[in-house]
Predict the structure.
Amino acid sequence: MSTKTVGEFTVTAVSDGVLYTTHDVVLGVDKDDSARLTGVPYGQQLVLDVNSFLIRRDGKLILSDAGSGHTMQPTLGKLPQNLRAIGADPSAIDIIMLTHLHGDHSLGLVDPQGRAVFPKAELFIHEVEAAFWLDRTLQPDDSERVTRNSKAQRAVTAPYRDRIRRIRDGEVLPGITAMLRPGHTPGHTNWLIESGGERLLIWGDIVHLAAVQLARPEARLIYDVDTDLAAATRAKVLDWAARERLTVAGAHIGFPGFGTVTRSGGNFAIEPA
């Protein structure tokens, strides 16, 4: 277990497991360069940690992202058991703040029978994200990935329909601010936690492959809905985090995912926190 204290908040990294992928998901960077940066030869699997973050304050249990559930890889879907292991049963979670609606962040909302894994939790979803994945009429020219994910998100959020809070930029809870950071998805959201003069940025999928995207912020992934905007947003967030010496919490920057962003020229790095 790894926990950061942020003033009156405690933030604990909780693993959902690991996701296996390949260099083929990387766009805008030569495959040989990707292999060199990661240290993993082309053709071999890359391993991504999938992290959620449990936030405690004044007896409230708040979760940032809900894990992958049971329909992705067998190495995923470990969030409920890992929450129980630290004394936070899924039935006790009060709020789930979703950075975005992609499978490894949201399919864990339901069990194999389609029932809510977090039966009392209220979902916080940016209104832009909800509009794109939950409300929009699907179009004939939508990609297969967008169509499939839209249908999946409507299914996993259905048990929570009366407990979805569509939020905008700004303070959504005392000490927690929503910041729209689009590109990876239209409503991709960062959560800035501030208390007692301390700050922590939960940044979702600003970075997937740290070894590649910190050295080459222009590198995109095939999962990005808008690849150009995702790259521009990443550069903006990395620059800001480095200037401010922010502690960040990332879904895919190793476990536990806490670090401080530093900059050297056009390249970035993350110092473990």
